[in-house]
Design goal:
With 253 residues, the chain is of the alpha/beta class. The protein contains eight helices and 13 strands.
Length: 253
């Protein structure tokens, strides 16, 4: 990471990630570094169309945070990750709420790989946005973007001031709040998601904070074989969101 005019730049690499950001969110791209023999016409055309600054990729001195051994495929892009997010109030004004609407709130998820994976799942299963608090939470970084497989460019990433405050606000607007909890009494198998839903994922180690549990309408869990103690945060989120999505075909359209 480096700073330009006090704005943080993160680097992402690989043809898929760079192609996605140039296609979906060219406004966040600062520069693209290309190997001397790079020849992917689709990326070159997109960079030219978006008038992005092109630089030579120096593998002896690659952009900060990019290993010389990384599978960069000859292309690295510098982006402003903070520009990928939108404030909660702005997001809320444009959100059209129906029974097919669901949101995911991250509550102190600290592994950027988990953040990227759950963003990908949220996009795959038709959620309307991923809400991200500022404290004790992994921010949107180049790693998050890379792990999301480009989905960080396709689903709204929303900055929120506080998890419980936003939960109360959404509940007042008719959302039903589900906390992901291994010992929750509501099962993904039997639950009927009849109202707009908001799912809250807690910290990888300690789970949901007690006040957040109290704010949720229900704590939802996944039936699993007794030989397995639990699923990791990203896998559990994918299963819960898939259970919701199976009842909301409209969200996938």
């Amino acid at each position: 990471m480096k700073r330009t005019d006090k704005v943080e730049i993160e680097y992402i690499f690989g043809k898929h990630a760079v192609r996605e950001v140039l296609r979906e969110r060219p406004d966040v791209v600062v520069e693209v570094h290309l190997a001397a023999d790079f020849s992917d016409v689709s990326i070159l055309d997109l960079a030219e169309k978006q008038k992005v600054a092109l630089k030579m990729l120096n593998l002896k001195n690659p952009p900060r945070g990019i290993s010389a051994n990384a599978a960069h495929q000859g292309v690295v892009a510098g982006i402003y990750p903070l520009k990928l997010t939108i404030p909660y109030k702005e997001f809320k004004q444009s959100l059209k709420v129906t029974p097919d609407t669901a949101l995911l709130i991250l509550g102190e998820v600290q592994d950027p790989h988990n953040v990227g994976a759950v963003i990908r799942s949220a996009a795959a299963f038709g959620l309307a946005g991923v809400l991200i608090p500022p404290h004790n939470q992994a921010p949107v970084t180049g790693t998050v973007v890379k792990v999301s497989a480009g989905m960080a460019f396709r689903i709204p990433l929303v900055t929120i001031p506080n998890v419980n405050t936003v939960l109360r606000d959404l509940q007042e607007d008719g959302f039903w709040a589900y906390g992901l909890e291994g010992e929750g009494t509501t099962s993904t198998v039997t639950e009927k998601f009849t109202r707009p839903s908001v799912f809250v994922l807690g910290n990888e180690g300690s789970g949901l904070r007690e006040k957040t549990k109290e704010q949720c309408d229900e704590l939802i869990s996944i039936p699993i074989h007794p030989r397995c103690e639990s699923l990791n945060a990203a896998a559990a989120t994918a299963v819960v969101l898939a259970s919701w999505s199976a009842q909301h075909g409209g969200a996938l359209s």
